[in-house]
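Researcher: Next sequence.
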Amino acid sequence: MRITRPTRPARLAALLGVAAVGISVTTVTLPGTAGATPRQPVRPTIVLEHGAFADASSWDGVVERLQRAGYPVVAAANPLRGPATDAAYLRSVVEHIDGPVVLVGHSYGGTVISQAATGLEGKVKALVYIAAFLPDTGENSLGLTNKFPGSTLGQAIAPVNYTLPDGASGADVFIKPDTFHQQFAADVPADKARLMATGQRPIAAAALEENSTRAAWKTIPSWSLVTTEDRNIPVAAQRFMSARAHARTVEIDASHAVSVSRPDAVARIVEKAARTVR
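Model: Next structure:
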């Protein structure tokens, strides 16, 4: 049997083939660029901001539906320390995303997206409020909750006082586990609500009284999903804020935990906002 040596062009092709494999396995696709080609517009990245007494996992059902529809999604962690601090953190997340963004906020997360998006109108193309606060400058979450009757949150929460090694002190508040199901997530199955109560993120008490300094809904198109069975933010407050912001509003018979109990409805209104992005 005669064995022939590969020609120089053949050896070069083989080497290039190996190199190509090396390049392909190290390629990274950033959010907002998946599937983009010169002939296809880049879909906006959906950034989801949770509120108090929840965490990023509360968006799981919504994320699943949006990703299935082809949208890149980021479920951001909310520090829950105060509007200024939390908005600065969210803004840094948004600034590291390539392409247009749709910001979605649940509950207190609405306060955060309203502040974070100001000055980013070229990048943040739409705001979506899910059972959320839409505060104006000088307003805070506690004041807006108490502006209308209907919230039973005050009787359901408990404080945890803390002192840090540097001497700073304060108080966080959380929903008492035995009241969490009925207060926050009445239309969520009991076993799921128990898990949510156990994993809830407390919010700094001071955050609920810290005034907003920005209101991005004045310059960025807005959508609002109003929850009529909400025991945290009165439905009258949600309607008032949504109307004032001229938000495109949909109402749904759901609890405050609508992203968990009705992820289909939440994903639907987010997609409506995203489809307006050009």
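Model: Confidence is low (pLDDT under 50) at residues 1-30, 33-39. DSSP finds eleven helices and nine strands in the chain.
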